[in-house]
């Protein structure tokens, strides 16, 4: 059963002076869902978050929260009246207040202040640290305090601006999962801003991919990876290479790797030149296969090894092999294509480069 609509952005544009940073942005978020705005630096994701929070006026479009318009051109409901919580990159805790006092700061008039504070500290696994001060905590613990403080007033929507960027890799991964569990346990809707797609996929129900101030695709992590709508989304999400092909039928393409057939039909004229996206998991080892590639590099990932491969034509590929299949640079390996979800785009004027195909 679908949840009711909570947040709706329609045709939103905003920026500085007459220079738009975000253009024609439309998206929606259902109650209880967690979303992420993802993209390279300077793409407009943080400006979008600030517009939702009420920190940036709109040049065009409209933002509604829980059925009420909170921003349009010439009108911006003050941030403190929006019932929106905010978790910042630098935690923004009060250094002179204890952990418990920080959490309770926004609910000082609440009749159940102490009980609610205790419940939130338990939720973020800091029950024993309520009397400590922020400087006595680790970075991960400080971020949990900031989260509990933002949740205390029971906001309709929680906004998180690169909340894990100051943490190291493993702590960042673990805390992002913990935050998702906490938000889901509370039924709190949230939007996260990040440039880390692994983090976005781990936390979010929906992800919006931005490029140069425009939303390229608003979709589930699965669809972004397997059903990208634009070449930019295809290249920014995950890893992969494009190879040139020619459309033989709506679902079949001729390539230097042979004839490939997918599970979807394309409406372009037969014979059209196309670029075929191949992910590392689309290419599997085949010792008995006739298709050969030379290993040009490798990265050990534990359960698998990511091999960089070069075809006889000079085209580049990447492939994930089981880690027990050990190959050395310069070695020839047999491969085959195992992809039933071929992703095609009209061919560009020149063959895409590696830099255009990997995440920024």
TrEMBL record:
Name recorded for this polypeptide: Iron(III) transport system ATP-binding protein
Alphabetized GO MF terms: ATP binding; ATP hydrolysis activity; transmembrane transporter activity
Nucleotide-binding in keyword set: yes
Pfam families named among the record's database cross-references: ABC_tran, TOBE_2
Superkingdom as given in the UniProt entry: Bacteria
Cited InterPro entries: AAA+_ATPase (IPR003593), ABC_SmlMolc_Importer (IPR050093), ABC_transporter-like_ATP-bd (IPR003439), ABC_transporter-like_CS (IPR017871), Mo/tungstate-bd_C_term_dom (IPR008995), P-loop_NTPase (IPR027417), Transp-assoc_OB_typ2 (IPR013611)
UniProt entry tagged with the keyword Nucleotide-binding: yes
GO BP annotation list: quaternary ammonium group transport
């Amino acid at each position: 059963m679908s949840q009711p609509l909570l947040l709706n952005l329609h045709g939103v544009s905003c920026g500085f002076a007459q220079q738009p940073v975000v253009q024609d942005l439309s998206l929606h978020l259902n109650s209880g869902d967690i979303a992420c705005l993802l993209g390279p630096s300077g793409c407009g994701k943080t400006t979008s978050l600030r517009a939702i929070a009420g920190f940036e006026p709109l040049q065009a479009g409209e933002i509604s929260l829980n059925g009420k318009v909170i921003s349009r051109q010439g009108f911006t409901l003050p941030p403190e009246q929006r019932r929106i919580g905010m978790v910042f990159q630098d935690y923004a805790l009060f250094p002179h207040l204890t952990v418990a006092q920080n959490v309770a700061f926004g609910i000082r008039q609440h009749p159940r202040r102490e009980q609610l504070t205790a419940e939130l500290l338990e939720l973020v696994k800091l029950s024993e640290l309520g009397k400590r001060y922020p400087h006595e905590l680790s970075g991960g613990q400080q971020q949990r305090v900031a989260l509990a403080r933002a949740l205390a007033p029971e906001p309709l929507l929680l906004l998180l601006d690169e909340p894990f960027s100051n943490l190291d890799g493993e702590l960042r991964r673990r805390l992002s999962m913990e935050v998702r569990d906490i938000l889901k346990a509370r039924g709190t809707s949230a939007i996260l801003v990040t440039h880390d797609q692994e983090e976005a996929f781990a936390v979010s129900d929906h992800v919006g991919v931005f490029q140069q101030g425009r939303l390229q695709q608003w979709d589930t992590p699965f669809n972004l990876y397997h059903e990208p709508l634009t070449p930019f989304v295809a290249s920014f999400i995950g890893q992969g290479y494009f190879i040139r092909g020619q459309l033989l039928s709506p679902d079949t393409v001729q390539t230097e790797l042979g004839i490939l057939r997918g599970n979807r039909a394309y409406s372009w004229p037969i014979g059209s030149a196309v670029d075929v996206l191949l992910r590392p998991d689309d290419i599997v080892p085949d010792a008995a296969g006739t298709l050969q590639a030379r290993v040009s590099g490798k990265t050990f990932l534990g359960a698998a090894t990511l091999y960089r491969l070069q075809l006889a034509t000079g085209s580049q590929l990447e492939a994930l092999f089981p880690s027990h299949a050990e190959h050395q640079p310069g070695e020839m390996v047999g491969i085959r294509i195992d992809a039933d979800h071929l992703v095609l785009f009209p061919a560009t004027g020149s063959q895409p480069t590696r830099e255009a195909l990997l995440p920024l």
